[in-house]
Specification:
alpha+beta; three-stranded antiparallel sheet; 7 helices
């Protein structure tokens, strides 16, 4: 008998199924379905379309190009900016051709150059300082008294500019200016 009694217990254990197993599966399926629906809705609402992405990329590209152009213009304008190059002090005593009086000219000469040419000008000026100073002194000594008066300095400036650019390998000087110019009769 003992064998018979044990067998129904095994059958009873097999026949007993947990209650609510179908409800748990339904909840899991419903949860997964809601998650998929939410992800799909977020994808359509939050992810931009291809047109929006291309428009945004185009806008950024245009902005970066404009910024690059502005920087390039700024660099170009800085390179072409005119600066003063110190060519030295000059003091010459001479007698003009048309008079027997003696005069002294004292001036501080500056050359106007583009900033990008500053190194070239410094190199050439260092190599040709003697020739440039001699040519400038000759220009001053060979000028007439009218050219040396303050009202007529433009002609003397042009002559010095031409002579200096002729001695330089390139026309680096855009102009020359006098600082502390004095014409003194002795």
């Amino acid at each position: 008998m003992s064998d018979e009694t044990q067998q129904p217990d095994d059958d009873a254990a097999e026949s007993v199924k947990p209650a609510g197993g179908g409800v748990g599966r339904g909840l899991i399926v419903a949860f997964v379905g809601v998650v998929i629906l939410m992800e799909t809705a977020m994808f359509f609402l939050l992810v931009p379309s291809a047109e929006e992405v291309s428009a945004l990329a185009e806008e950024r590209l245009i902005q970066s190009i404009q910024e690059g152009e502005e920087e390039a213009e700024k660099l170009a304008s800085q390179e072409k900016e005119t600066i003063e190059f110190d060519m030295g002090m000059f003091g010459e005593t001479f007698s003009p051709h048309d008079t027997e009086r003696s005069f002294r000219v004292e001036l501080h000469l500056f050359g106007l150059i583009q900033q990008q040419n500053e190194e070239k000008m410094q190199d050439e000026f260092d190599r040709k300082t003697g020739r440039l100073r001699h040519a400038i002194r000759l220009r001053i000594r060979n000028s007439s008294l009218e050219e040396l008066e303050e009202n007529s300095q433009g002609l003397l400036e042009r002559r010095i500019l031409t002579q200096c650019n002729h001695l330089l390998e390139e026309d680096l000087l855009l102009g020359v200016i006098f600082n502390s110019y004095q014409l003194i009769e002795q």
